[in-house]
Amino acid sequence: MIEVKNLIKQYGNKSVVDNVSTQITNGKITSFIGPNGAGKSTLLSMISRLIPKNNGEIFIDGKELVQWNNTDLAKKISILKQSNHINIRLTIRELVSFGRFPYCQGNLTKEDIRYVDEAISYMKLKDIEHKYLDQLSGGQRQRAYIAMIIAQNTEYILLDEPLNNLDMKHSVQIMKILRSLVDDLGKTVAIVIHDINFASCYSDYIVALKDGKIIKEGNTNEIINKKVLESIYDIDFTIEDIENNKICVYF
Amino acid sequence: MKKRYLFITLIILSLSSIFIGVKEISLLDILYFNEDKIQILLLSRIPRLISIIIAGIGMSISGLIMQQISRNKFVSPTTAATIDSAKLGVLVSLILFTASSPLKKMMIAFIFAVSGTFLFMQILKRIKFKNTIFIPLIGMMLGSIIDSITTFFAYKYDLVQNISSWLQGDFSMTIKGRYELLYISIPLVIIAFIYANKFTVAGMGEDFSANLGLNYNRVMNIGIVIVALISSLVIITVGKIPFLGLIIPNIVTIFQGDNMKKNIVHTALLGAIFLLFCDILGRIIIFPYEVSISLTVGIIGSLIFLYLLVRGNKS
User: Fold this and answer.
1) Nearest C-alpha in A relative to B250
2) Which stretch of DSSP H or E encloses residue A241?
3) What is the value of ipTM here, to two decimals?
4) CB-CB neighbours of A235 under 10 Å
5) CATH number at residue B270
């Protein structure tokens, strides 16, 4: 379990994340939603030690983040940010192999190779595994990054806007993969997501932020609610039940 | 590009390098133990060959490391103020420590080279506009500023000729006893091999490195220290060799991608081959005289550099 207590991040005088306490429960998809500038990505980045916090505590499996050793932490929690998309020329296979870096420092053992193979076939990238990243479409590239995360084999997987720049087909594909990571492989997934309907259809738990504060959190059913969403986004919402999914209409 | 072919080419060029020169030496002389000619081999030809190979490997690997950690294809010791800073270091050692040993001079050049490169990397961190061509331009500008400081003090202390003769890349003066400092770069190259995977991860960026549990800053610093050390060693013993660290890694990565572990051997071999080729060319073009290697490398290198620039702009 990841526990966040009274977390604060300030830039100058402005608190981007303001006294946030929440937790990410194992075996679930937790979605962080909220308008631009709500502090979702900052929160995720702090949990995954990409940026330092100003105040507060983050416990991963009961141990404070600063007490974790870098390599051990890399075997426990992985983060994929939109911005860490790279411009170096690696093949898919090479990229996925680097997912094993925390375990073998790049010198792959048989076991590592097995993980790499599994991750590649799990993401259905076998036939293009020797293609370079810059030759791929956006959807393929996103799948390659997720394959790397799968090879990294961490209990917790954090993704910052994994659907950015993807069309509907690929978005659905990615969300189904995240779902199966949780349901089949027992992983814990936390995502920052903008499309409220994707959050509604695929996540178990939703944390809604605004201006650096948590407005409300709870099971998906409680949050996908006209009143709650209107208070977060300041626009009118209509919520319909379609085939057991709650779909928000806000256009 | 097969390693095997590169290796064979290197051996052929090495052999021809040994047997090219004003004094004619043939294989028979070695077989018959012609003392004079074997002396020439041991004192001049072989040291020259070894220093070219080491310098070629060292400079091209330095370039590879720089491009990997700065995430820019056009950054190299020449375009990141490393060499100009080392030059300033040489001047300082000439002014303040006139009688000191080459090793001491090298250390001073190294300190300057490290500081200059760090300065460049710090500027790089602060620049928001990360255009591929803009970054090396900044490096060259910084280099020129440092170079003008060097020139100013060189004039003031009447060392202009001294400093330019120091830094004209030239292997004709490489004889036994004057190049051995270069051997220090061999362990550095080995460290670069060991760190190859880490440099690749660092090349994926700070966030990516953190995700994989890599200490990004430490790897960056190790990279800069290796590059600055090798550059200063080469500058002190051989002089300035432009473009080598720029074009060789670029040619290799076009074919092989950026996985450093995969392409570091190719880069090393191709660097040695290219430098050796330029040296042989410089020795036969106005035989029995010599054109200095920085000229041949400069001309061939700048043409390839221009080609890469135009090509880089298209993609």
Assistant:
1) A89
2) strand A238-242
3) 0.89
4) 10
5) 1.10.3470.10
